[in-house]
Design brief:
There is one protein chain. This protein is mostly beta strands and 263 residues long. The chain has one domain (6-262). It is built from three helices and 15 strands. It has a 15-stranded antiparallel β-sheet that branches. A hairpin with a 6-residue loop joins strand 4 (87-95) and strand 5.
Length: 263
């Protein structure tokens, strides 16, 4: 079974047409919206591939030294899927709460016959990435730089989106750097809905997501492994991530909140 990137299974579950050469002029303002910030929390999610439950993850969002906020994610494949595809992952992201700008990401993925460590360090002008695999090809890893202002990672994307007005019909466009490459994300705010997740009913806001890969020349390219995704967040004072449904290169994948406790 092919190895799925953590982006597509956990979080990504964070392209159908090009936006033209002027896509940078269409980006949304980088500043956070006026919606109150998310409280520290502990949450559990389950993830699926088609009809199979494929993985589970815990999310811990807490205050960190220096006034930063920290998101710790621990994920692993489970059940029958684990017999075909063994994956254990740890992801830690630091963020500036006042600006919602990412500071750093440290991610470790362990598979049956390989481990991958990814380091991302963000500044106001871009990001530096270092990616190490074990076993490797004998060559030392080289840092890769992507210069672009106001980048978001997966964690800050969630916080930035939930801070916005999110009126029906609103469209938000921003650049996200999840782990290895930059993408243009377009989020269309859909209708308010009622959904059942984690054993309870929720008032929810539906968000529709599209992605385009950004190449080294800052040109847009179709995302070959991602088609589209629908995301639901709670329509309340928390605006918590509830559910994701995505179409990717291996079929349909999904994630659902199982439990949440605010600290």
């Amino acid at each position: 079974m092919k190895r799925l990137p953590l982006l597509l299974l956990c979080t990504g579950l964070l392209a159908t047409s090009a936006l033209g050469e002027g896509w940078q002029d269409e980006l949304s303002p980088a500043q956070p919206g006026s919606f109150p910030p998310l409280h520290p929390l502990h949450a559990q999610f389950k993830f699926g591939w088609s009809a199979f439950t494929a993985a589970e993850a815990t999310f811990d969002y807490s205050k960190y030294k220096g006034g930063l906020m920290r998101m710790d994610v621990s994920a692993k494949s489970t059940g029958f899927v684990r017999t075909l595809w063994r994956m254990d992952a740890q992801h830690t992201a630091l963020m500036q709460p006042s600006t919602l700008h990412p500071v750093s990401v440290r991610q470790t993925e362990v598979y049956h016959n390989q481990s991958v460590k990814t380091k991302l360090d963000f500044t106001s002008s871009g990001v530096t990435r270092l990616r190490e695999t074990n076993p490797n090809d004998g060559k030392p890893p080289k840092p890769k730089h992507f210069d672009f202002p106001d980048l978001l990672d997966l964690n800050s994307t969630l916080h930035w989106m939930r801070s916005q007005k999110l009126a029906g019909g609103d469209v938000y466009k921003f650049v996200v750097y999840p782990t290895t490459s930059p993408y243009l994300a377009e989020v269309d705010v859909g209708e308010r809905q009622k959904i059942s997740v984690g054993g309870r009913n929720w008032n929810a806001i539906k968000l529709n997501l599209k992605l385009w890969r950004i190449n080294d020349r800052l040109e847009l390219e179709p995302h070959t492994k991602f088609k589209n995704a629908a995301i639901w967040i709670s329509d309340d004072t928390n605006r918590m991530l509830l559910k994701i449904e995505a179409e990717i290169f291996v079929g349909s994948v999904w994630a659902e909140l199982q439990s949440i406790d605010y600290k």
